[in-house]
Amino acid sequence: MIRNYLKIAWRNLWRNKFFSSINILGLGLGMACSILIMLWVQNELSMNAFHANGARLYIVTERQYYDGKVHGQYAVPGVLANELKRQIPDIQCASQWGFNNDNTFQVDDKIIKLNGNFADSDFFKMFSFPLLQGNAVTALNTPVSMAISHKMANEFFGSAQAAMGKNIRYNNSKDFKVTAVFEDVPHNSSLQFDYLINWPSFLKENDWAKQWGNNGPNAFVMLYPGAKGELVDKKITRFLDKLNKEQNKAFREQLGLQKVSDVYLYSHFGDNGRPDSGQIEYVHLFSFVAVLIMLIACINFMNLTTARSVKRAKEIGVRKVVGALRPVLIRQFIGEAIMLTFIALVIAILLVIVLLPVFNTITQKQIDYPFANYRFWIGMLLLTLITGFISGSYPALFLSAFKPVSVLKGTLKLSSGSAWFRKGLVVFQFGLSILLIVGTIVISKQVNYIQSKDLGYDRENLLYVPIEGDLAKNYNIFKNEAMNMPGIMDVSRMSDAPINFGSTTGGVNWEGKDPNVNIEFTQVSVGYDFTKTMKLQLVAGRDYSRDFATDSLAYIINEAALKRIGYKDPINKPFTMWGKKGKIIGVLKDFHFNSLKEQIQPLVVRLGDTVHYGNILVRTKSGQTQQAVATLEKLCKELNPKFTFTYYFTDKEYQKLYNDEQVVGKLSKTFAFLAIFISCLGLLGLAMFTAEQRVKEIGIRKVLGASVSSLFGLLSTEFIILVGIALLIASPLAWYFMNEWLKAYTYRTDIDWWVFALAAVLSILIALVTVSFQAAKSALMNPVKSLRSE
Description:
Layout: H1 2-15, H2 17-45, E1 57-66, E2 69-73, H3 80-87, E3 91-97, E4 101-107, E5 110-119, H4 123-126, E6 131-133, E7 145-149, H5 150-157, H6 160-163, E8 167-170, E9 174-182, E10 195-198, H7 199-205, E11 218-223, H8 229-235, E12 253-259, H9 260-263, E13 268-269, E14 275-277, H10 280-307, H11 313-321, H12 326-363, H13 374-400, H14 404-409, H15 416-452, E15 462-466, H16 475-483, E16 488-494, E17 504-505, E18 508-510, E19 521-526, H17 530-534, E20 538-541, E21 554-558, H18 559-565, E22 574-577, E23 580-588, E24 603-607, E25 615-620, H19 625-639, E26 648-649, H20 650-656, H21 659-693, H22 695-703, H23 708-742, H24 753-779, H25 783-787
Parallel strand pairs: 5-10, 7-9, 19-24, 21-23
Antiparallel strand pairs: 1-2, 1-11, 1-12, 3-11, 4-5, 4-8, 6-9, 7-10, 8-9, 13-14, 15-25, 15-26, 16-25, 17-19, 18-22, 20-23, 21-24, 22-23
């Protein structure tokens, strides 16, 4: 019997090649999209999930209270981890972590710049980064200890074994001894590093990190088996009360815990100072998109199968007459749907093989082909069965309900209810497509808004060079030489990168300040000509100048800071930061120095022309950037020969701040196009069926004098009306969802009326183009053929 069912299914598939092809192609595309999204979601959910002690691993968070608001962060004091381990019995291991950056290493004549970090001796006992050489206890237990990756060991020494015990020169200032070699960090780790250096080495070079009032590094803890994270979270809430003497009633610091496995997905802090969102939003978004696309593909199947039901009416009637029960017919039709879905799965997997490299490029991931994983095939089996069952359920119920008497008499007529159901499915299908169209347009608008927004400074033709090695002491020589080189307009320096001012403080004071109110200020140290090099605008006062010896104790603030300070005429008014009393000499027009997701914060700029860290800013002349880079490289090799020349273009680094948005924009365009294409396949099939059902009506109309244009309108209008209804239903939903998405941005684009007008025009044009060929073909058909008696 099963063999007989398969034969019938194959014959029906072969007899209706075009409709079967539409069904299979639509399902195949839908499944391919869903598989790609599933692989991406699986990759996102696997981040940090490989640690053997994952259930006991936590990162410490800190909540700070400024100006009546709560701010959450991962930055904590640099001596917190060991103190937590010493005082909290539930904590088995603890490690500080920071700062992740590029540094220069040298062995003999080989000089390489690599990215790494500092960590405590407990680190390898906590995290599952396998050691190829050395052991977790001694890997980072001395001030000169250094653990390096397998890749780094091969680069310098040829093998992991050969690297053990060897010295590596760090930043041309200190030698470290290789005490462990770890396997290269996997891509599904949010902690990425090529080397780790003992944390006390960092503290020795950075006294500020030893102070309880300063934050910056991260802290990780591992609890003892059986310890409850919720209870430890409560225990450490007020841990800093006695340790940080700078706290007052207005400024309170509270600690908390977050599982390491949740850090990647939940890294954005909410209004309560706790991490509550982040990458998980995109996981939910694209999971939703995958379901939408599969629904659209399934609706295609339902529509086309029920539309073609008249073709199988006699078969069903004969089967019922000879004793076939309705449950048997239902199983048969669902089985046929599953068979078609299996064929579609084969096409989908072939598409995944072809498209996965492109998908990886778009998403900036390294997702591997999952074909060796048995879980993948179990998932594919479930996807096939569920898709086949959903897409085949209604047609099976519909076809199996035919009455044999009506069928065999030739008086079968499809009910108006089935026609309305098919129309409802078309409306639902195009409604989902319109949701994706509007979403794509709004996301593209926001990405374009971010890329083109005036930040208050000119990020074009602006590059920065990290200050390292001898560049710190040779900065003045560098600046003087560079200013005489072709293509260079201005040179200055700053403690941060121009796209991200990361240091904040509450240690500020001024005349009339309420002692019970603590306000958080962003602070940055800069060199002379900073304002000119960045092309910032002064709304009052002046820039730093060598003509004023007192400028070492002078401050420049932005408009947001002036608003919080409250001075009517701020120039030469007293201002104190970190106990250093000075005066305000200038006010900068507000500019964006962090993500557009954040409000412009109060900013204090201080003079730091002699600091030994940060970046050198270089403003190049338009059209001469490459020439300027070449001369800067030559200059750096002369002044800083032990370091490779490194530079960053500000505009490119700014774009990297919004990688997620750009990826979402590209994916939304791709999936919206595929959703519309799948919808159009179904619409084309329905248009062909409608024209086929009305072939004699069209012939009679032509005989009676109907024009080709009127017949074209007759066949097209019905589908255009359905798309219009879909637009009316989907538009308010699209506005709601996209408005919620935009709320993540303090500075965002508007959802203009033309977005929906454009979505309407696109939807109607797409539908019109889809049905036009079949409508025109039917309208031009010779009426003699259509009216000829069978």
